[in-house]
Design goal:
The protein is of the alpha/beta class. 53% of the residues lie in helices and 15% in strands.
């Protein structure tokens, strides 16, 4: 069974590699990015089912990333894994649909949250695909009816 794909965004390269190694059994492909801008570039060419993202990063931080992601109508589950979380940041991230929050650098609970995020992401992508197919089928039916008139 396919697991789906995972994107990890963090400016600490050593941590990126550690997370990739720790989570490799939870995803078919794991993509890495060192900031939000690079993460957006990955999403231009790769579909992912879940995203793990730090908040404090150069160029584009995690909050800017999730805001940009949501303006593109991308509802991929996003897990914030950060050492810079506070109540205000968490409330801001929740407004944009953050899936969960974990404290960096502890890995306790990470696998369980990623597993839930990957499952949720797979279900969201499946529902979106089914909705798109329903719309296309309804459009084709309508066009056929118009042609028959």
């Amino acid at each position: 069974m396919a697991n789906g794909n995972l994107l990890i965004i963090d400016d600490e390269v050593v941590l990126l590699k550690r997370l990739k190694k720790c989570l490799e059994s939870y995803a078919d492909e794991i993509y890495l990015a060192v900031d939000g801008l690079e993460g957006l570039k990955v999403l231009e060419t790769h579909k992912v089912n879940c995203i793990i993202c730090d908040i404090k990063m150069p160029k584009m931080n995690g909050l800017e990333f999730i805001k940009q992601l949501r303006t593109q109508n991308d509802n991929t589950p996003l897990i914030f894994f950060t050492g810079h979380g506070n109540r205000e940041l968490m409330l801001e991230a929740i407004k944009y649909g953050a899936f969960d929050f974990l404290d960096k650098p502890k890995l306790d609970g990470l696998e369980e949250v990623v597993s839930r995020g990957m499952t949720e992401g797979f279900e969201r992508k499946t529902l979106a695909q089914e909705s798109e197919e329903e719309i296309m089928n309804a459009y084709a039916k309508l066009m056929k009816e118009i042609d028959n008139d």
